[in-house]
Every structure is written in C-alpha cells, then in structure tokens.
C-alpha cells in the first residue's frame, strides 16, 4: 500500500518567506533536489547533504560512530566526557574560543552523546558554513588541552550526573533496569558513566578514546539547509578531507546471551509515586531486507503505537481512565533499531492506592488480549495515518532532518530510511501485529524494574554514588 | 586561524533577512489575524490566544485556567446537529486525521493550537472538529475527578524534587500576593469544578479580543474561510466586555535570603527579583545585556566564571521573563551541596559587578554579532515563525517588528545596557534561595 498522503514533490521549490522576497535574495534559484545525497571523501569520511532553501540558514552536524557502547568497564562515561573536552581547544584554537567564534557568526551550537553515537552541531546563517566546517574539522583532528581543563570539566560532568540521574528517581531506576537486563552487552552501562568511574577517570583515558575512535572513516558530516551541493563538497574536501585517513578499530560483538528467566530489580529512592517498567528483549530492525527479525521489529513498533500512540489508545483507556483506575499514566515503546540490542517497554505510574504488582498484571493483560483477539483495521489505519502525518511535520525543522540522516548513517541504514520505513510499516497487517504480541512477551526475556518510593522522602539518606536511561548527555 | 581574521569576516549586512511579509486584518468579530504564507510544506499551524491565562484565576482557585485548558479536549457536547463526543472518540478522530489540537494556559494567555496537513479533505475535517471543541466543551465531571486526582498526585511527586521546592520558594518570595506567585495545590484544585470551567470560558474566551496567528501553506482567502469556520461557534459581542485590570507586581522592599534544608545530590540556587514587562522601554537593552551576563550559552559571564573556570555547575544562567506584568529576573544554578556557598558567592559577584559596571564594548559587540548575525535562525521554520507572530500579536508589536529588530539591537550601547540594568535590578534587594546546601 502506498502512503495516502502524497510524497512531497522532490524538486518542489520550498519557499518560506514569500516568493518576491526570496527571488530578490536568490535571483537564480534553481530546482532544488530535496533528497539527501551521500559522498565519501578520499580519507573515508562520509558527507551527507540535503538542500532545504526555505530560509537562509543551515545546520551542520558531525556524527561519530562511537558512543558509550564502545567503552569498556572502568572508564564508563568517557565518550561523553570526551564530547565535553572537544570544546576545550586545539593546537590553534584556545580554550573557550570555539564557542566564542561560533557565537560571533550568529551560530548556536551544542553536542550530544548516546549509547550508539556522539554528535556535534552548529546552526548558522548558511553563508557561515565555511567557518564552522573549518572549526569542526580542526577539532576532529587536533583537539588538545592541558590536564587542568580535564580536571575542571569532569567536575562539570559529575554535576550533570547529579542533576540528570542522582536527583531523578526514575532515571536511577532506568539505570538499574539496563544494568540488570544486560549482562554482556555494553548497553548495561549508563551513557553518563558510573560516578566512581568519573571519579577515577584520567585525562589520558579521554585522549586515548579520542585517538582510537575519531578517525575519518568512523564519522559523517551532515549538512541540511540553504546550501549548494558542489560548494559543500568542495568545502568538505578542503577541511575534513585534509585529515589523514586512519583505521577504524575492530569492534568486539559483545552479544547479549539469551535470557532464560525473568529478572527483577527494586530501586529505593526519595519519591512519592511508585513507578514500574517491564522491558522485553526484541529483534533489532537492521535494514530493509525482508527478514523475519526486520518485519517483526516493524510490527512491534505498530504494536506500541496501538497501545499508546494517541489519546485514548488501549493502555490509557484500560488502565488510566475511570473510577478505580489502576494507573495515573501508562505507556508503551519499541526502541526498534540501533547498534545494540533493542527492547520493548511498558511503563506505568500506579494510581493512588494501587500497587506495581497490580499494574504488572494489567499491563501484560493488554498484550495478551491483542495476542488472542488481534487489533482492528481501524486502529492500524489510525496509527499509520499518524506516522505519515508526523513524517510531513518533521520536515519543518532542518535540525530534525539532519538528526534523522545522522542516526540513519550511524545504524548503517540508507538515507531514505524514513520514507522506506513508512512504506514498510504500511505493509504490516493486523495479523502480524497479533503474531508479534503472541511471540515476544513471555516471562523468560522479561526484566521488571520497580521504583519503591521512600516515604518521608528527603529524610532518606542516600549514598553519594549510584549510577542514564537511553537518555542522552548533552554538553 | 586567528581571532582577528574571524572578526574581520564580520560585515554581514543587517537587513539581509528583513521583510517577513505579515498579512494582518481584523475580522468582523473583532478578532485580530496575523498570517505568514509558507507554502513549502503542505501543513498549517493556527494559534488562537485569549486573555485567559492563570493571572485571571479567581482567588482561591489557582489552577482554574490550566484545568480549563486541559479539559477542553476531554469531551464535547452536541453542537449544530453534530453528536457529542467523549475524550476517546476525540483522541481517535484527531489521530485519524493526522492532526493535533492542544490548549495551554500560561500566566497571561490561554492558547489553542491546531496543526494539520493542508490536503483539503483533512484540513476541512480538522477545522470542523476543532470548531466544535472550541465552541462546545462538555467538561465532563467524572473525567475531571480523575484528572484532578492525577494532578494532585503529580504535585506530590513533584514536591519531592529539589528543583520544584526551590522554584516555589523563589516564586513566592518574588511575587508575594500577585497572581504570578499563586501556587496550585490540592486545596485550590478541590475548589474547581466543571461549572467553574464553563464560567471561565464564557467570561474570558472573548472573540472580540482574540489574537490569531497562522503560518502555513494557505493564502489569505483560505485563511479567512478556515477561521470563519473555526470560530463559528463562539459567541459574538456587539460591545466587547472589558476584563478587570490585574494589579502590577510590587517591587521588593528588602533582600530575602532563604536557606532551605533538603536532602539531595545537588543544592539548587535561585537569585532574583521582579524584572520587566514586555512593553518596558528597556526591553532591548536588557535582552542584549542579559546575553552577556547569563543568556549566551557557553560564552556568558556566569557560565565562564561558575562552570568554565571553576567546574561548579553543569547549568548556570540568567534570564528575564518579559510578560504582561513584570516577570521574574532569575539567576539559577545547581551544584554539589558543599559547594553551594562558593557558587552563590561567585554568581552574586558576577551579577553585582555587571549591574554596577555593565558590559565591555567588546562584549556588546560580541552579543550583537550573535543576535543580529543569527537573526535568520529565529525564523527558519514554520514553528519559529508562528512563535514570533503570536508574540507580535499578543503584545501589539508593530507589523515591521521583525524588520526593525536587528536595527533596534544594533542601536544599543554599553552605557545604555549598564543604565538599564542599574534602573531595573537591585542586587541589594534580591531574593536568594539556597536549597539543600551543606557546609
């Protein structure tokens, strides 16, 4: 089935500000291809360009295929600490100068680290692209700083951990959930790192990680906005392209062994409400080959949407409405794709007087119901319509477009993944959704995490260290 | 690469992105419309705003505006021959259309937003449904009971968090009895029922005062048709009712230092006072100056002193909240409990020095470079255009506001910034909240 919304014409002139104005600014506005184009520089670095001429701005991102999953025990959090250190200077740009220069160009900037990747970006007037490409290429190749800068910055990262994790009971619970669910997979470690690993981290740990992983063939530049493709190619060759090629280190697979029984973890933290997450191991969507795993991963995504994709979807209706309701809220999500193992999660906050145990039974009953009775054609049409519409809304932000392209590259997916996922989702039948509901939700691959709120809340003395969900650390 | 070379590149003509074509007209009902046509993507955003924010909550019923907004999507009565719908039927209908509506109440405004694709059969249906939601909310009592329980539970949960407790103490100390300082709690929510919401709507959702912003792949004729249908169910007034005046925020008479014990991994710090209303003549000077002080990401004085030089905090900032009345000026940071005193000292010193001496010429130039050079980044999506448009609409800013914005910023001098800060901020009479510090 084809999407029932027409795809945007790929060479449609995207005017934002009124034709007269833009024509004045750009007398020779040519037909602008809206597909993303991919090139490989001579040192192996990938370049991805998507033209969007609605406004005279651009977003420039550098994606490195290295994240917390590439760390080893004892240095958890180093990918994210290194991301912070990339703002600390190069041979020719001193500490603080990078941010000052980007600001002087009118640019906004930041960076982000997750399990699978590290990314850096600037949003700039498009005419400023040459400057930020030169700056970013410079720090990709020549990042350096005195030990003292590391010593200060790692304290900033510890404050970030205190803010995001230690003072957030639900984040603490997710940290323990991942640490319990995964044994061999590096997904068991928090992105921001365990506090003790941050305490013990040395400047050399960050430098070693940088030298090992920041090689051209392990990175992609993504540019989206009002740019000329040939010009960006030329700029990329003259900046990033000058960096010597290197060898991308071999990666150990570190596959998670099969789980053969339910795992449970309880987390006590100062909170008022309990919280519950049920997480099952499910297949990874690894590409568009019609394998069983790939098709099931898509069907699981639709299952999550049927359960929790809109106001009044199944979980909300069954658990969180009416007198005697069990939950204040209930949700479902399928992480679907990534470099590591994927999970399908149900989570809920118990209503006053209800228990996590009651919720666990009720949440699982909703999956069982679908496994037995299936889902309706109307529900399937609804969640597919939503998916398609959100694909159109997504185009409003060049930042989101760049982010989507970057993460597709990280996962080794083609650049038109968003459109192809849409088509593939459209091909999923209600029977297939029913089948995955029956197939993946047994006891043996389940991990249950429960947050036990500590009453009297803040009299509760906590240890100074404990250990981010799939949440990201941003600089 | 030398800094000099970079600065030399800086000669961008200020007006290169000027001329956002805003179409503006007043409907027969009195509603004011602001439209920017953006045909690039087959979608449209509509935002309708009323003078129905939380500042209009009746005494003792803090939370009424927010409750009303939340309940607007929870059910509709039959309307012009169309049947009643409950929250689930509405949820399904919106999902089927791939469209979204939402209602939100801030301190000043209640906003209704509609986002839809512009394919005619989808847009027509979305507008028709949104019209019913605006005109005939049913405020079902049983749904409100659940919603209220959920809300009370979330307030209790939130009260276990250091950021919430510090924020509440700060707000109360800054605003005193002004509605901006009113706290929604279990007791105030208990005093709210469906009848109160219905009354709030009939009193405040006045079409004759509505401000409407539209951005998307629609022209003026299409927008007029769309809005006529969207607003068809709201009552019209031959004479527009005048809403009561809300008092201004009082200035603080003396410094207040609040040390609040709390067990948390970080101490939370807020320093501030009532700041300025949006219409204040010092708006541009304070906006530009605050970029230097604590608004400018990684390059502000506060970030440099507290984070970059000393590693004391992940996040440290200052901002003004220019609203209908004087919103708070706040400096905020979080740090390990034993470092709180040091961090407060550093932040206070930076603030006092800035108010006394203002920024350097070089800092002012850097701030202008950022703000003027990055002006296009404020307008490069439909969503951002909509935000700008609704700002112009709400505060009755001139239609060429975006065209003259860069020139207004460019005019400001370091001396004007120093004087504006000295006029509007009194570091010796500020509120300082320190929650969770340990010696």
Structural write-up:
- The complex is a heterodimer of chains A (475) and B (439).
- Chain A has helices at residues 19-25, 78-85, 97-104, 129-142, 147-166, 169-181, 195-200, 203-213, 229-238, 292-308, 314-319, 356-373, 377-393, 398-410, 417-426, 430-439, and strands at residues 37-40, 46-51, 57-64, 108-113, 118-125, 219-225, 263-269, 275-282, 327-334, 342-350, 446-453, 473-474.
- Chain A has 16 helices and twelve strands.
- By secondary structure, chain B is α+β, with helices and mostly antiparallel strands.
- Chain B is built from 16 helices and 13 strands.
- In chain B, the strands form three sheets. Chain B has a six-stranded mixed β-sheet with strand order 1-2-8-3-7-6, with helices on both faces.
- In chain B, strand 6 (100-105) and strand 7 form a beta hairpin.
- The longest helix of chain B has 18 residues, at 141-158.
- Chain B starts with a helix and ends with a strand.
- Classes of the chains: A alpha+beta (475), B alpha+beta (439).
- The interface between A and B is large, with 100 and 89 residues.
Topology overview:
The complex is a heterodimer of chains A (475) and B (439).
Chain A: H1 19-25, E1 37-40, E2 46-51, E3 57-64, H2 78-85, H3 97-104, E4 108-113, E5 118-125, H4 129-142, H5 147-166, H6 169-181, H7 195-200, H8 203-213, E6 219-225, H9 229-238, E7 263-269, E8 275-282, H10 292-308, H11 314-319, E9 327-334, E10 342-350, H12 356-373, H13 377-393, H14 398-410, H15 417-426, H16 430-439, E11 446-453, E12 473-474
Parallel strand pairs in A: 2-6, 7-11
Antiparallel strand pairs in A: 1-2, 3-5, 3-6, 4-5, 4-12, 8-10, 8-11, 9-10
Helix pairs in contact in A: 2-8, 10-16, 12-16, 13-15
Chain B: H1 3-8, E1 23-26, E2 32-37, E3 43-50, H2 64-71, E4 75-76, E5 85-86, H3 87-97, E6 100-105, E7 110-117, H4 120-135, H5 141-158, H6 162-175, H7 186-190, H8 194-204, E8 211-216, H9 220-230, E9 256-260, E10 267-274, H10 283-295, H11 301-308, E11 316-319, E12 328-335, H12 340-357, H13 361-373, H14 382-394, H15 401-411, H16 414-424, E13 431-435
Parallel strand pairs in B: 2-8, 9-13
Antiparallel strand pairs in B: 1-2, 3-7, 3-8, 4-5, 6-7, 10-12, 10-13, 11-12
Helix pairs in contact in B: 2-8, 4-9, 10-13, 10-16, 11-12, 12-16
